[in-house]
Amino acid sequence: MEVIDIGAPLSVLVGEATLGRIFNVLGEPVENLGPVDTRTTSPIHRSAPAFIQLDTRFSIFETGIKVVDRLAPYRRGGKIGLFGEARASKKLLIMELINNIAKAHGGVSVFGGVGERTCEGNDLYIEMQEFRVINEENIAGSKVALVYGQMNEPSGARMRVGLTALCRMPSAMGYQPTLSTEMGSLKERITSTKEGSITSIQAVYVLADDLTDPITATTFVHLDATTVLSRGLATKGIDPAVDPLDSTSTMLQPWIVGEEHYEAGQRVKQTLQCYKVKTL
């Protein structure tokens, strides 16, 4: 196969014209709505914002989901992890967040389908149309863009590359020794600046509730909040199946959310802990 150097990095289409559209990993539209009416592009590899550009204010990102906003609130421009096994309602919670952000706050959501999340793209697109978050009659009025790429969970993709090609000794469980550095270089770009903010909500599949897996453990380091979804709660019909005792947030501090909010959250957790102990 012939390889041609185009003298530029891999770039994708950006701008308001991309809202309401679905793109593959190469940035090509795949929903049969015609070409995207924009020529503005941006490279996929960019440097993280400089320190002086960052917005250091602590601002709560309201989701409209009471158990989250009350017990493990998200930070605007922060990084949040949704941890859970299969059928723990991660997809349902993501859909609820996209709907609430678009309708209540007029915000823009970008869903990135990676690995197993890619197979849910069609269902998500149809439901976003039903909720009128994506409006095919007025694409410009849409508040969400869907981007898919079967990348086999990028954090561990190099684990599948021949070790002789990497020229490095494998680390824990066969992952590359540069796993933490590579993950950090991406997550440093997810932040709040004086011009705007990007809040990242990342679904993390936890096999057999093993939070010690290298991918899971490395992800924890970069997060401002964790929402742990319990399959046991989901089977009981509790939706969303958030386990407030295992979920955490750096924003649940009295000097951020207020003394009343903080005390109420702590009392709720104490009550739930007592109930859990009595039912064991």
UniProtKB/TrEMBL annotation:
It comes from Amborella trichopoda. Keywords: ATP-binding, Hydrogen ion transport, Ion transport, Nucleotide-binding, Translocase, Transport. GO terms for molecular function: ATP binding. InterPro entries: ATPase_a/bsu_AS, ATPase_alpha/beta_chains, ATPase_F1/V1/A1_a/bsu_nucl-bd, P-loop_NTPase. This is H(+)-transporting two-sector ATPase. Its EC number is 7.1.2.2. It is an enzyme of class 7 (translocase). Pfam families: ATP-synt_ab (PF00006). Residues 165-249 form the ATPase F1/V1/A1 complex alpha/beta subunit nucleotide-binding domain. Belongs to the ATPase alpha/beta chains family. It catalyses: ATP + H2O + 4 H(+)(in) = ADP + phosphate + 5 H(+)(out). GO terms for biological process: proton motive force-driven mitochondrial ATP synthesis; proton transmembrane transport.
